[in-house]
Amino acid sequence: MASGASPSSSATRSDPHKHSTAEKRAPASKEVAAVIDSLKKKLSADRCFSIKKRIDENKKNLRGVTQSTMRSCMERGGGGGSYNKDGSDLLVKRQRDSPGMKSGFSASDAADKNNNNNNHSSFLEDGNASSTTMVQGSSVPVKISLRPIKMPDVKRLSPYTTWVFLDRNQRMTEDQSVVGRRRIYYDQTGGEALICSDSEEEAIDEEDEKRAFVEPEDFIIRMTLDQLGLSDSVLEELANFLSRSSSEIKARYEVLMKEKEVSESGDNQAESSLLNKDMDGALDSFDNLFCRRCLVFDCRLHGCSQDLIFPAEKPAPWTPPVDENLTCGANCYKTLLKSNRIPANGTTEDKTGTSSDGAGTKTTSKFSGKPNRKKPKTFPSESASSNEKCTPETSDSENGVQQDTNPEKVSSSSKVKASGRRGGRKRNNNNRVAERVSRRTQKRQKKSEASDTDSIATGSRSASDAKHKENEDATSSSQKHVKSGSSKNSRKNDTPVEDSKNSVKSDDPVSQLNAVASEPCSDGSLRKDEFMGENVCPGGVSEDKSWRPLEKSLFQKGVEIFGMNSCMIARNLLCGLKSCWEVFQYMTCSENKASFFGGDALNPDGSSKFDINGNMTNNQVRRRSRFLRRRGKVRRLKYTWKSAAYHSIRKKSTDKKDQPCRQFNPCNCKTACGKECTCLLNGTCCEKYCGCPKSCKNRFRGCHCAKSQCRSRQCPCFAADRECDPDVCRNCWVIGGDGTLGVPSQRGDNYECRNMKLLLKQQQRVLLGISDVSGWGAFLKNSVSKHEYLGEYTGELISHKEADKRGKIYDRENSSFLFNLNDQFVLDAYRKGDKLKFANHSPEPNCYAKVIMVAGDHRVGIFAKERILAGEELFYDYRYEPDRAPAWARKPEASGSKKDENVTPSVGRPKKVA
Amino acid sequence: MPKITLGNESLVGSLIPSNKKSYKLTNRIQEGKTPLYSVAFNFIDARFFTCFVSAGGNGINLYNCLEDGSISLLSAFTDEDKEESFNTVSWACGVKGNLFVVAGGEKGIIRVIDVNNEKIHKSLVGHGDLVNEIRTQPLKPQLVLSASKDESVRLWNVETGICILIFAGSGGHRNEVISVDFHPSDMHRFVSCGMDTTIKIWSMKEFWTYVDESFTWKDDPSKFPTKFVQFPIFTASVHTDFVDCNRWLGDCILSKSDEILLWEPQIKENSPEEGTSDVLLRYPIPNCDHWFIKFSCDLFLNYLSIGNQEGKIYVWDLKSCPPVLITVLAHDKSKSVIRQTAMSTDGNTILAASEDGTIWRWDAINKEQADSVEAQRPPLKEKGKAKLK
């Protein structure tokens, strides 16, 4: 709209603008008002025009739609002839036969509404006065005796509000809140509408939030200020007109001007594809949406955007079952190592590598041909190098780590032989690298022989060789690389510290790699050094360029997970991006890098984000990055961690412990929890979800029960109202599944833990039926014995404040599904829950409810208080606070005396408590 | 409710009747004393465009409008249970074209009456509370939607008696649902509104396989895998009070609270929560602040008629912009609340179901007739009132 108006108004703009700037006279308020007024008129005219246009468009579309509807009606009406050919259409007959009623008609016979229809003759007596042509027939009522057809009675359902089944609790989403929202309640008996909100909320309602500027407002501000210049009086007028403050408008005008400049300069930032993102960016949605407690995305219980808590102790990287000789595909480093080892032994390949002008195939043929000292047990390197260019393939075979742990195998022994034949001088060199490699590889693989690692080192070099060749294909001249290689190399060595810092950000990847690759060589012979520098440098260039930040980060994650296992990393994390061989090369390079800077203690911290053991070197807690989060996402939960801030004013029922349960939120401690631990401050135990190490003193230790099966208060878990957790308890286990996946080795002689029923959902079948008491009721399908777990009372987790508001509404309907859970939350099963929400209250119940801590969350379990037979209705004591309980839930003797208390009800709504 | 900001004003219709079209009262039927809540013309089958059905109390009656202004009673049905009080009635038909009348009310049970054999075809049980409105899908008249006090909307296949989908849950209504309407051309869409003052647009596109399945279901209807649809594709709050009637007008929506608004939902496909609603036109209706007063349109959506609590009927032209009031129909005898009106396919007949148990029939008259009527008539009361506004 605004844009549509601009051309016409721009014509008028220039004149007053000049006027105001030239004379620097503040325009009179009349003038301002006139300008604003004209703009306003313009706007409303535009708006009117646009509405008309849209209505017209809609009209046009509508015509087609209604006509097609009409057509289908005609077809149904026999026009198509496909319907009602039988001719026995009763309606047609009726339509033809039934006499018309030209005047009054009393349908006393048509519906037994038992009214004395003696007034039908008075119909339209004086109606003629205002509508003369109305009655054409006689005023005698026509009586038609049509026997009404009776519809047999169908029993109605007991009323309920539609509810959604929940198998686990859900946290309320913000948009479900009734706090601060007006709810109009229709009083069925009084027939009038009431507004359910109190004064405190109205205040919130009226409190005007900062309104965003809408486009028309922007238009007026821009146009007016452009025309009249920026002066206080204009601003004031505008502020008046738009009912905002003048400073607000001034600020907005500046923003608008800036926007305009930006749009004029028209900067186009290249869109970054997913692969160009860095890991943190790519992981943002994962971090935000994945619940690390429930291991599901979009967890409805703990919500999105939880604090990221990384455990202080990291598990050792996972090692697959070792099968040394299986390769992970054509590009497996094992295959390629073998093929490239021999070229690496000679120095001639350097020449070929540098001198050849990028004819890849030629090079490779030379390459494989010249240093042919070894019997071609190896693969032809032609195929190897061409393989490199292929897209990485993955195979199902399990691949061992690079070190040969069983050297008796044929291929590995040949490797050993091969390396054994090398010159001693070089060997020195390689050994050094090998030492570093082995130092950083996992401890359990330490025993690997030097000769094995030897081959790794050569492999790394030959890897860069191969890379180099590839690179030649891509980049036109290799000579440049050679020259620049050595120069960079030297520069590199001068500033290792600086670069080690950079290495995290990969600012200068070329030089880094140079440094890394050439370092080992500098210890060796001069000639070697040169060649290495020349050789590795181009390889490094291609390598690092082709490794995007995301791939690098993925690689690092891979090392954390799998250790130095390029097969696994390539297959699981870089599938389709990098081959095993490429990963291996990169790994060796970065390893050298690490060893160079880390091992030489130049800059141990900054050298890399990871070390081989997979620990993050920067141990700061990573908060979830917020920059990628979109506004107004559905189901986004917002909650604060002020767990200790809310004090319940509610009185708990007398016969239960007086302290309400405390909501657990995992702490972020990196060392054993001290005074500042949030769990300690909050008064909860640390759980397995906390960051603190297992040795933390504040941790709940679990139980050691065996024979007792954790069924009594002897079990520390049971005594603390917690379920056992196989992650925590020593002997707790159960057998799951039908045995098709194999039976686990049994612990503790068949004594399964019996205190994990909520966790495992080992519940009874509950039936929904018409209660013997009132409304719906919950019934048990099978008989159970005393203390048997029946099921969970699930619902929406809402705050106490929210519960108070909702309770007001529910009280009107005289049905409440609120249940006190802990100091932070109340369960509301009104719209979401399970069948146990229908279990009725009884002062002498056969069930009881208990709040139990299950894996860090409080949940409500319903248990049998006595033996219950199949088909019996379930009752439990809602334990409403006496002064807030509705009449039906009061103790019989108390109900009379409590009446006066009802006059001044305490704050809060009745809620069930365990 | 979004504030009316600059440049988002809507055009308000004037209450001065244009008298582009005139109607005269041709008949009145006293059904009984029980309030009538619903009246509906048949829009399904062209042979029976003159037939209509009324519902109120425990009775459902089928009538035929004759050309001479008279009305004939075709069939009458009563529920054996006197507790029943029907709130709504709609036409539907089977795959073979056999007509159904579908009614629902206080008991929450939806009655499907086969008009041809005058028997109950199905009684659909499932709603947890009373049914406020039933609407039929115009392109697939076997499908009906029912809006209930139990905060849900249900989609039924009346021929097979299957409850296909339930629209309630996390994103559903927070109070009684009062009105629903199928999109006229997009079969997957419908709109619902209710006491929570919101209007929600739902899509069943992803669930359409269940709809198809419902046609061929041979097993017990209760065994049908009924699905919950928990999230609407759009939620609008253009009103601040109960919204008790809504209808599609092309891709725009007419919704009624204390006035009728025509607004356009602007849905963002990927982020439904961020959609906006743009109110284009306003149709003021004086004395219409009771809830459960519903308007109706003709088949071609040219006109809209609505009664008010004084027994007057306002007829608006839907094709004009800004809105034009065609006429106000009033009669000395008509004093009770008109709960619902019905317009015939061409808009030439308007029926009004009144709370005093009467059905009023108004027929359009041509220009000369109208002029003669005008000449004879003393200055109209209602006209003067309208001017006052």
Automatic annotation (TrEMBL), chain A:
Pfam families: HTH_CLF_N, preSET_CXC, SET
Gene Ontology molecular function: chromatin binding; histone H3K27 trimethyltransferase activity
Gene Ontology biological process: heterochromatin formation; methylation; regulation of developmental process
Transmembrane segments: none
Protein name stated in the entry: Histone-lysine N-methyltransferase CLF
Source organism of the structure: Raphanus sativus
Superkingdom classification of source: Eukaryota
Biased composition (Low complexity): 1-13, 476-488
GO CC annotations, alphabetized: PcG protein complex
Automatic annotation (TrEMBL), chain B:
Keywords associated with the record: Repeat, Transcription, Transcription regulation, WD repeat
Superkingdom per UniProt: Eukaryota
InterPro entries per record: PcG_WD-repeat, WD40/YVTN_repeat-like_dom_sf, WD40_PAC1, WD40_repeat_CS, WD40_repeat_dom_sf, WD40_rpt
Swiss-Prot/TrEMBL WD repeat ranges: 124-166, 170-205, 331-372
Stretches for region Disordered: 370-389
Basic and acidic residues biased stretches: 379-389
Family (UniProt): Belongs to the WD repeat ESC family.
Name of the protein described by the UniProt record: Polycomb group protein FERTILIZATION-INDEPENDENT ENDOSPERM
Gene transcribed to yield this protein: LOC108859998
